[in-house]
Specification:
Length: 285
């Protein structure tokens, strides 16, 4: 099973509990064995920790494990694969912990992030520490690439995808995991807006819902990005003529996602969104 740790700020981390159930009529002793991991911290401390790493579970009882994730640089490729080793077991029981660490409280997850499977993570190339972008926000080397989203219409003529905007609750804020007390600042909202959804973009079939809003600390909002194939509107247009000649193509719309707020605020408050809507050939129809 893959267990996603809560998204966390660099050096603050997150916690999650895991339950192991002994369905046997006998007491069993388990031991967690690390098989493989993704990125490691730059310090000597590992990004993941689980306790207790071994224990005896009474017949029919449940053992609760505490998993902790804390990274010292930003990356979405932290993972560690554990085997729950039990004497005389016939089938290996695996736990894959996954963690994402961010420099700012605001984060954006693409459809590709949400579709990552254990197989994708486990086949990732080995890390190259020399290729990592600098974590120093003043260095200017930390770059964020445009978010490209391909939308392929289904039988209903509409293609959709989900983009998630999250807002991490810092431990420096009241009620956070870092021990904020009465004097800690009240966590503020993260504001987002999608710019560039003009009448022309809408007429070509693209839409984003909601186009603006707020995300409370500790929460997340899902944006539904859509492309509706409008054959009637395409008639006589350049794209309609090309499709009629038997050539499939992609319609494109360049939008901008703007983020404001959060503690700490975004290092780069603007993210380019490139929406691509698939237009299939209409030849022979």
């Amino acid at each position: 099973a893959m267990l996603q740790m809560p998204d966390a700020l660099v050096r603050e981390g997150s916690i999650r509990t895991i339950e192991i159930v002994n369905t046997s009529v006998f007491a069993l002793t388990y031991k967690l064995v690390s098989l493989r991991s993704g990125h490691s911290n730059r310090s000597t401390l590992p990004p993941f920790d689980i306790s207790p790493i071994e224990a005896e579970i009474a017949a029919g009882a449940t053992q609760t494990l505490t998993a902790r994730f804390c990274a010292d640089f930003a990356s979405d490729n932290f993972f560690q694969l554990f085997e729950v080793s039990v004497p005389n077991q016939k089938t290996a029981h695996l736990i894959l912990l996954r963690g994402r660490a961010w420099e700012s409280a605001a984060y954006v997850l693409s459809p590709q992030h949400l579709l990552q499977t254990p197989e994708v993570l486990l086949t990732a190339p080995p890390q190259d520490l020399l290729a990592f972008p600098s974590a120093d926000p003043t260095s200017g080397s930390l770059t964020i690439s445009p978010l490209e989203i391909e939308l392929v219409p289904g039988e209903d003529g509409v293609g959709t995808a989900i983009v998630t905007i999250g807002h991490i609750k810092s431990g420096d804020e009241g009620g956070g995991g870092g021990g904020g007390g009465k004097g800690a600042p009240k966590p503020g909202s993260l504001e987002f807006s999608v710019e560039g959804v003009t009448d022309d973009v809408t007429r070509r079939g693209f839409s984003v819902t909601p186009a603006k809003g707020t995300v409370e600390a500790g929460g997340a909002v899902e944006l539904t990005v859509s492309f509706e194939l409008r054959r009637e509107a395409m008639k006589g247009s350049e794209q309609g003529i090309i499709a009629a000649f038997g050539v499939s193509q992609w319609a494109e719309a360049a939008l901008k996602l703007v983020l404001k707020g959060g503690n700490p605020p975004p290092l780069d408050p603007e993210r380019q969104l490139i929406l691509k809507g698939y237009i299939a050939s209409t030849a022979g129809r």
